[in-house]
Structures are given as structure tokens and as C-alpha cells.
């Protein structure tokens, strides 16, 4: 079992990630505050084509003011709009750890004070129900998201306490939990159900980790155990509210959509809403870890296998359909109608990390890294003010405009979303990145990610990781006051990785294990060749297609750099010879690849189909590729990740 | 301008098509009667995944009994359920021309009598409005389908008159039209609008052609002219019904969906609901033909270009999305989520034929034939009791089950549909096939389709076409009492076509033109090589894929014949060397193709993605292909029309 280091024991000095953290601090966080406060005019779009979804403004802070009695008005936005504020606060907390800022802290204190004012005397806190429908509090868990919001409140409170030592938000959160404990539990008369959208479970375990107060772990275990124990729980809620005249809503509840068709420990596959699934799995893994629950761990491993071996895009995007924002069947990974919600890749990072801590196998960190550098980073624009909810692997803009089956696929990042879960989720993950760089067991330290940084352990071991990765191919690791071993991860994309050190080095399939002494110096070198990726033949939509990766980055082509992008074919042999270049229009550094390719010539006829007896007429062409996460930063254009393989000699 | 021959001037003797006409007569028509009469238990499915759609039974004849006062009860089924009965009667009419049957005629007479009893005194006839909501008659044209049903009644009446000389159905239809004339027209106080679903227009022109009574052409022209002249017409209907308390329906009207965003003569592209679009275009072409309306003809030609050069599948399926059963944008032709409704391919046959009669260019008949042998024929099973509404080009059954974006894609043909437009549409087209085989202008005869048959013109010219096509490669044409020229079409798939005859032959790009004398004998020979098809590079979803055609048939592979179908790759050079074989499990004749191909080996790992540096491991394999229209007759399995091209030497 591995332990996380506290966030303030790791200081980042990394060019790539410091830039992102600075973007979050200087742009994303202030921008998001303005949006949540309705202080700037932005184009708030629905996350998918549906005229009934809230758009136009956030109103999230205004909802708190109304709930607090400071303003009059109606609640606006999604039932879970509060969580946008909590996630913003969580991001602020992490950011303050790395980059203290009195002004920002004061602003956050004010928001926390407002939240406190909105909290009811009994501890209950959810502006939607407080303003709109108090009688339905805790009575429509199939969609209420009350405990989901509470979970995000808890996570924010922990972050803010870690950052500032201020307990006020934590006190609010604890009072919310007390209120939850009054209403939920195995006891007769209490509610024997969990929130339709998982989140409280993982948050409660984090609260246990933060406070060491076991009641929170117990409550998390309750929610994870009670879920699915009565598959009719949510349908019964609907019926009871109808019978009692409290609601005229008649939603059709699909228990599999919210993973309540059976108990989590019995789940066999990844199914239903992808973010719910993976937040749940994260909570399950955390409980399994702390409670040594092998049954729950086995379920986590089944879910992991199903996701990563059958239901994950090469970008670590997950969720193949907009319908329910959900997983579909095995090997069903369409590149153009997929969902791949930013939050789902973030949830995959969380889940991977929990499993890694239980059993530090290479595959967990490989997937975590794949998600981080691809499906997560693609969620935000380089200017920090535009966000993707859906992260496609293939875009033909005209098709997105005219084919309603792609109504959810935006061709550029909107300013904001009516359902704004992704933008603050992005902010909180990026600003807490140092959490993932190192982990420890009782004696040893694991170096997971190649990120320039300095770690100081509680035992006083200092590990300095100097690197210009991903722009360069080495790590200088300086250990002072060392003891135990340093496990240096061997990423799957790295070739010819070598340790140059005086210290004793052992090599396994997954790690270089270096004995740390009082003063240990390690020069780790590796190569980042440009790699071709094929899909398992079972993944039928990628038949005879190649993707391209270099280092942790999956690459993509955009129409802006490659006219008639869908006319390009790539030769396998050319991929490793790709040239690394600069592209000032989108890249801060040399991360652009140029691959010798072939391009099908345009037809001279406008016929749609032709009988042919000759090989396709192609001409040599240069295919320009950029890291996937940077697509869509230069206006609307074509996008492609998987390219047809051209094999003719 | 070409003229059709009357149906009874052409006698079919063709093996391929006589079998289909016999199937329609002996199985499809009796089966459909039983279904319409709720006399047998069948699985009536919704045409797409939507629990609000009618399913379970047809009730179509029962609706007439209720409207006639012979039974009590409620209307059941779609608002246009009556049209199922009319299309069945139309098919019966055509069938009686070819294959007289007293028992069937008596049954049809009874149905006609029932329809007559249901007709109101003022001529109005629509069981839905008569039973359910008389006050809304002609007041919700945005969805009422009343004139659509009337159009199908007219077409049935013409067929039945042609077959039997019995006028009773024609009289009913004429009284319906009289009633329509009372309510619709340019005059003050009349309704200035057309049915949301086009059909009445083409039917009225057919009634004009049948009766030579010009009022019907005038009314058709009115409906075609008034459409879109006020784009708010349908929205105004909704508002008025709400205002007057006649309805609480608040549908959002998209004028483009029903081609009422502008007048038909101003339509620039194929848009909206595909069947509506093409029924409208058929009516427009008929009016343009009779009224010498060049503006309308130009619009037809624009629509034709847009459909056939940008929006048509290789099977002549049209309609790229289930959302609105509609066209999408140019070159947006996904093979797995498409709609390709059987009715839409049938409508394309109608539209192509009208344009062909105006200007007998090869392309019109090529598309007509492509639709007929592929997208239309695929609509029914070989047993005549199962039908497709949606005709996909790519099926992975598991994906259809688990991906809601494919909720409309059935993997096998259901017994019947809640919206049963396609099955009787199939029956009426097949049983009137002789209509398309020959056409004439004032002096000459056009031989359009290679179908064994005998034509006797009004002038007494007898043309006997003897052929075992598509199983063999020649036509023996015997002309007796000939005069004028015989234009023998050169299909685009035919190679090395030659005329062996004593007569004078002229050759153009589109035709062999043979001078017909008292006794002319022509031996036409040609080849049907197996052809590879590529898509225009603009059709991005078919990038580096090949389809295969032989004669008029597009071919497909099924999982039943080819395990791991999506692992096959085809070499261009092998396609022309395909072997023609028999497949007793689905084919009556030697129409199966076996192509030497490559098959990607299954991976030994269950990884979803791998970094690769070697070429794909393939092994030689035989790819078995059957004509597309026969797919899905042997249980659920994989389907593919477009195969990856394998070019490595």
C-alpha cells in the first residue's frame, strides 16, 4: 500500500506543468469566479443539443445569496449548480498551497462566509432544495445530487484547510455530514439509499484520511454498501413523491445508468454514466484500501479491466455515447459520436491513482498519465477561458452542424456550460498535480511522473527531480538525506531507459529501483520515439487505422495544418522518422510532429462513387501533428487522431 | 419526354423478378392483410428506440370498422395508419394485373367496401380524425397526414381501376379530392397550406394522368406552390389550435424538416425528412413535366444533384440520421448510424424515374437500378414476412444493443412496425416493377432494365426481352412489327457491351440505338465483372475503404460467412478475380462472391492499444460476399459493405 504525500511537501518547478498551474491561478480561477458570479458576459452553452437545458448564465453564487436570504429571487441552473462553487473553492485551495495570494484568499473567505450563511440551522445545505423545494430534500436522490454537492463541499473544505489552516469551510462540511448522518443509515426510519450521482463516498473517505475520524469511513462504506441493495429504491422514491403529491415528475429510472442495479461489490462491468461509474469506483477503491475489503477490491479490478481493456479511447477518454453520458458495450468506441467527457477522464485519473496506491503496477500510472496529458488537458483552451465537455477524436465541422447525432460535439471550446462540471474539475486537478508525482510506502519513495519538482518527506528525505521533460529526455535526480529505495517508473512509451548512478540499481519490468543514500545522484535517460499505435482488432471502428504518440502525448492532425485532413494516409515506417518542430501558432515549445505521408488526390469528377481498377492516386505530403490536447485552439476545423495506414510500396 | 407504358402492356417472365412478384402475391400480400386485420400474432416493433411510439398491433382495418360505425372502440396506431391499408390495396391492384386471383380480388373488394362505409357524407375520410378528433380535421396539417393518406388512397384507386376496371375505390378517392377542393385553394377563406408530409401532390398528378382531368393537376400545382410560401403556416396552426382550445400540443415546428422553409421551386438542397423530400421532388418533377415548368424542373435537378452527388449511400440508401429520419450535410454518410429508410430508397426510384422521363440520361436509370436492387430489396426478407425500416451498411450487433445512438438500427428484420410505411411500400413497388422496364417517346422505345419480359405497345410493336440476367450476361431481343428505334441502356456496371444484330446500330455514351423493323433480332452481350468502388475523397467516413459491386448488386460481408468480419482487408487487384459461387443457405442462384483477402490475426494480448513497429500480422483469407439486399436473412450477425483496402505487396 502506498501513501500520498501532502500537497505542500512537493514543490513543482516544471516548465510544462508550472505553466498550466499558473494559467489556472492567473486566468482560470479568476475567470471562473467572474462566471460563477455572473459578473462577465459569456456564452454559456448547453452541453448537448437540448433546448430544455439551462444556458445563458451560471447564477451559482447568486443561488447561495438567495438561499442565505441576502437576495430575493429564484434558483437558476442545474440542481447541482452549488458544486461549481465548491470545485472552484477546491481549486483555489490547491492553488493557494502552490502560489499563495492574499487577495484570492480573501475572496475565497468571502465565498465561504456566504456558504456558511446559506447553511440551514440543522446543517442542511443545498441551495436548489432550500430555495425551490424544501419538502423534497433527501427525497429524490435519483436526481437530487444533494450528497454529490456535499461531497464536493467536503473536498473543497479539505483543500482549503490544507492550504490555509482555516477550518470554517471544514466546519460547514462537517455539519452537513452530521445532517446526513441524521437522515441516512441502516437504522430503522433512516433512508436506506445513496445519492444517484456518486461523489460523497470518495469525499467521505478523504475526510476520514484528513481527520482520521473513522465515522466518515463508516458512512462512506454505508453509501457504498446500500447502493443497489434494493434496485427499486429510486423508482420507489418517484412513486412515493407522486403518491404524496410532492412532485409530478415521472422519470424512468434505469438502475444501470446510476450503477444501482446491484451493489458495487457485485458490479461486473463498467456501465452507465461514466463519471458516476468512475467516481463510485474511486470511492470503492479507497474504502477497499482502508478497510482491506478484498471483495470490493476485486470489483474495482473488474471495472478497471473492463474500462481499460474494452472501453477506453487512446486519449483515455471514456464514455462512448451522449445518451446518458455513458459507457456502451465492449469495443464500442466510435471516434466521432463518442462523449469522452473531460470529467470522466479526470475521474479515471482518480480511479487509477487509488488502484496504484493499493498495488503500484505500471499499468495504473500509464493510464493515469495518458488521461492527464490527453483527455484531461484537452478540456481547456490554452487561454484558460474556454472548455470542452466532450472530447472527440474525429471532427468534420459540417457534420457536427448538420448531423443531430453529433449535436453534443462542439467544434471549438465554448466559454462555459450550463452544466459546468468540467471547467472547475479541470482547475482542481491541475492545481493539485503534485499529488500524483510521488508516493511512498513505509520505506520507499515512488517517482511516478516526470515532473520537475522537489519532494521533502516527513522523514526528511529530499528528492529533487530536475528535468525539462517532455521537451527533453532526461531526469537529474538529486537525493539528499536519503534512505530506502527510490522506485523510478518506466513509462510504457519510453525506450532505452537507463540509470546513470553510483547507487545500486535493480531493474524490474515496471521500475528502476535505486538505493537512496545520504547523497545519491541519478541521471536517468530515455528516448521518446514517435510511436505508432494500433488498436486491438476487436475494436472494429479503428480497423486499419494508426494513431501516433510521442512521450505521453497522443497526437492529432487538424485541418488548419493539413487541408483535406481526411485524405491523408500514413506509412508505418515513416512514423518513427517524424520530425519534431515548433508551431508558434499553438505550441509554446517544440512539440509539433511532421510525418511523411501520402495524400489522396481530389477527384476530377464530382461523382460520389466510382468503379476503380487502379490504385488510389496519392501524392507525397507532410502530415503535421500536434499533441491532441491542443486541438481546437485555432478556430473550427477538421480533427483526426486515427489515420488510415498506407502500406503500398 | 418519355411516356410510361401501361402496366398490362408489359408481361414479366423474369426469373429474378417473377420470384419476387410471386413472393409478394403469395406471401407478402396475404401476410400483410393478416397483420392489418390483427388476425395473426406478430411482434410489432417501434421503428426506433422510443417508448412513446405505437407498437404491439396494427389495428389499421379495425380503425376503418370503427369509423364506419360497424364496431365500437378507439383509434389505435399512428395518425397515418390508414395509409397502410391503401398501400396494401395498391399492391393488390398491381398484383392482380400480373397474377389475377379471384379470391384476392374479392377480399380487396370487401376492404374497399369498408373504406366506402367509413367515408363521411361530405367525402372526408381519415379514420384518426373521424374517430378521435373531428374538430381538428384539416387543422393540424403539420402532422395530420390527412392529405398524405388521401394521396395513397388515390394511388391505390388508380391501381385497382387499372387491374379490375372497378371504379368504386376511384369514386371514393375522387370524393375525397372534392372534399379537399372545398377546403383548400388560393381563394379567400380556404386553407393556404399543404400537408406536412408530401404525397398528395404526386398522387394528384397520377390521377390527372389516369383521368386526363386537369383539375387534379391544378390542385397538385396548388399544393406545390403554396408550400413554404408562408414559412409560419404550420406554427400558426399550432398557435391557433392552442388559442381556440382545440389542442394542447406544442410541437416545435422546423420548417426545413418538412421542406416548408421556402417554396419547392426555390429549394436549393435535399434537406429534412428524406421520404417527404423525395415524394415532394417526385411530385415537382411530374408537375414540371406536364406543365413545362422549367423553374420547378431546375429545382428538381438541384435536389437530384445534391442527393446523388453528396448525400446518397452506395446502396442508394438516403437519410443519414434517425433524428427526423432526415438528410444531414454534404458527404455526411456514416455507415453505422445512418437511417436509409426503405421508403426513402423507394422514393428515390420514383424521383429518378420522373427525371428520366423528362430527360432520359443514363444517370437517372443507373440510380433507379441501384436503389431497386439494393436499398429497396433489402427492405424485405427472403421469406416475405420480415421487413427493414432502417438499412444499415455496417452492423456490429453488440454495438446496436448497447449504444443508444444505434437504437434505430435493427440487426434482423422485425415482423412488422408500429409505423408500417415500409412493408406495403415495398409490396407496391415490386408488384409494379414492369412500369420501369420500358418507356417510350413518340417514335421510339427505351429498354431501361434487363428484365425478361414482353412489351406490346399501343401501336402493336412487340418486343420480347429474353434473358437470365442477372445470372447470365446476355439479352435476346426479338422485335416484331417494329418501327422507330429501340434505345438499349448501357448500365454503368456493364463492360464490353456489344450488339449482335443485322439491324442498324448507333452507339452513344448512354445507349445502343437499334433501328426496329418488321422483324428485328438483337443479341446483346455484356460482362458483369466484379467491380471495386471507391468513394469520393470528400466522403471522409469511407476513407481508404472499398466496396464491391457486380452487375446491379452491391455486395456485403456477413459475420456468418466470415468470422471477425471487421478483421478482413481486401486487395484491389483481387476483386476482379472474385469467384462466383452458390450459397444454398440464402441464395437461390449463383450470386455469392468469394474474394481472396487478408485477415488480421487476433492479438495474443487483450490490450486495447499497442505500440507497433511491424506491419499488421495478416493471413490469407477468403472473404465471402453476398448481395447486400440479402443480408440479415440468417440471424443476427456482423455486416460490412465497405472494407479496408490492403495494399501491401
TrEMBL record, chains A, B:
Q: Where is the Non-reducing end beta-L-arabinofuranosidase-like GH127 catalytic domain?
A: 9-434
Q: Which InterPro entries match?
A: 6-hairpin_glycosidase_sf, Beta-AFase-like, Beta-AFase-like_GH127_C, Beta-AFase-like_GH127_cat, Beta-AFase-like_GH127_middle
Record-level GO BP terms: carbohydrate metabolic process
Highest taxon of the source? Bacteria
Q: Where does the record place the Non-reducing end beta-L-arabinofuranosidase-like GH127 middle domain?
A: 445-504
Residue ranges constituting the Non-reducing end beta-L-arabinofuranosidase-like GH127 C-terminal domain according to the UniProt record: 533-644
Q: Which Pfam families match?
A: Beta-AFase-like_GH127_cat, Glyco_hydro127C, Glyco_hydro127M
Question: Which residues, if any, are the signal sequence?
Answer: none
Q: PANTHER family this protein is in?
A: DUF1680 DOMAIN PROTEIN (AFU_ORTHOLOGUE AFUA_1G08910) (PTHR43465:SF2)
Protein's recorded name: Glycoside hydrolase family 127 protein
